[in-house]
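Predict the 3D structure for this chain.
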Amino acid sequence: MKDKILPLDYDQYSIEELTEKANKIIASLEKENDLNNSTDSYQELIKLNNIIEKKFHKNFKSIGEETNKKIKEITKK
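Done. Predicted structure below.
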């Protein structure tokens, strides 16, 4: 399955906001009786999941780098 190009505005949202959007999609899918008509919603949910995962890894990496810098500063003293 080819991913559609993601809207650029997703980069402006926080992980929490993206998670909220994903939860709304999940809630609407749970209410849907005919899931054959929900392909677009599933694809958007997968894309949101990928964006959330990338943002999480980026934040995790940033925290690790900051921690390493602080540890190096402390050990120099």
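The chain is about 70% helix and 0% strand.
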